[in-house]
Amino acid sequence: MNPDASTIAAGAPIEVDLAPITEGQDIKVFWRGKPIYIMNRTKKQIEEARAVPTASLPDPQSDQSRVKEGHDQWLVVIGICTHLGCIPIAHEGNYDGFFCPCHGSQYDSSGRIRQGPAPLNLAVPPYAFVSDTKIKIG
């Protein structure tokens, strides 16, 4: 017995199996009608994100504060540009993260705004690991 579509659209939590997502790959799922990007970041992406001085960012947040401890390779963000609500494209732009072609906002591999008119980082939805290979969003 699963919840019906209207319940899910209203915000029922969803579970996502991470096992099929290979290193460097991302998937997009929907929760509460919003696109959620789940990215299995490479070691290089994590190192580059952590090398950025937090004070230099328009919306200062450390990479560590945007991921779950012990699961640093997994980035989970709401895929809605914080400028005007467009949907950015993953693995595009100058920072190996997300690029919003509508007005040029660029986010890094931690979903932090690095360039363009967007004022804030991509939001991190409420989520938790229910096992090493499964998360629950919501």
List keywords for this structure.
138 residues; mainly beta; Rieske Iron-sulfur Protein; four-stranded antiparallel β-sheet; three-stranded antiparallel β-sheet; 2 helices; globular
3D architecture notes:
- This protein is mainly β and 138 residues long.
- It has a single domain (5-137), classed as Rieske [2Fe-2S] iron-sulphur domain (Rieske Iron-sulfur Protein).
- 11% of the residues lie in helices and 33% in strands.
- The chain has two helices and ten strands; from the N terminus they run αβββαβββββββ.
- It has helices at 5-10, 43-51; strands spanning 14-17, 26-31, 34-40, 74-78, 89-92, 97-100, 105-107, 113-115, 127-131, 134-137.
- The protein has a four-stranded antiparallel sheet, with no helix packed on it. Strands 1-10-9 form a three-stranded antiparallel sheet, with no helix packed on it. The protein has a three-stranded antiparallel sheet with strand order 2-3-4, with no helix packed on it.
- A hairpin with a 4-residue loop joins strand 5 and strand 6.
- The longest helix is centred in the middle third of the chain and has 9 residues, at 43-51.
- The radius of gyration is 15 Å and the shape is globular.
- It starts with a helix and ends with a strand.
- The model has no long low-confidence stretch (mean pLDDT 94).
